[in-house]
Amino acid sequence: MIDWYPIIKGNCNKCGECIIECPLENMIIKNNQLIIIDGMRCPDNCNICSESCKLNAISYYDGTEESILSAFSGDCHCH
């Protein structure tokens, strides 16, 4: 079961601030997309990357329906 997993929302502008702040060096920009290398490595309740994001473009899946809805509250860039 996944207890805590960061999710990058569509409103991310790839500024890289979260990459700089992540103590695990667990984020990269590849092919113009912000990527979490291994979300399972992120400690439960760590919010360092989301706290560094001025656009509130990082949310977390914690097993609740509320966390899923929050993850999809950013602008969609899928088309």
Describe this structure in words.
The protein is an alpha+beta fold. Helix content is 22%, strand content 20%. The protein contains 3 helices and 4 strands, in the order βαββαβα. Strands 1-4 form a two-stranded antiparallel ribbon. The protein has a two-stranded antiparallel sheet with strand order 2-3. Strand 2 and strand 3 (33-36) form a beta hairpin. It is globular. The protein starts with a strand and ends in an 8-residue tail after the last helix.
List the topology elements.
Blueprint: E1 5-8, H1 17-21, E2 27-30, E3 33-36, H2 48-52, E4 58-61, H3 65-71
Antiparallel strand pairs: 1-4, 2-3
Estimate the global geometry from the Cα principal axes.
globular
Helix content: 10-25%
Give the SSE string: EHEEHEH
N-to-C span? 31 Å
Question: Taking Cα atoms only, what radius of gyration do you get, to the nearest Å?
Answer: 12 Å
Taken as a percent bin, the fraction of beta residues is 15-25%
Q: Give the overall average pLDDT.
A: 84
Give start-end ranges of low-pLDDT stretches: none
Cross-sheet strand order for the largest sheet: 1-4
Helical/strand content category: alpha+beta
Q: Number of helical segments?
A: 3
The main sheet comes to: 2 strands, antiparallel
**Annotation, overall tally of beta strands:** 4
Keywords, please?
4 strands; 3 helices; alpha+beta; 79 residues; two-stranded antiparallel sheet; globular; 22% helix
Structure summarized in a few sentences:
The protein has 79 residues and is α+β, with helices and mostly antiparallel strands. It has three helices and four strands. β2 and β3 form a beta hairpin.
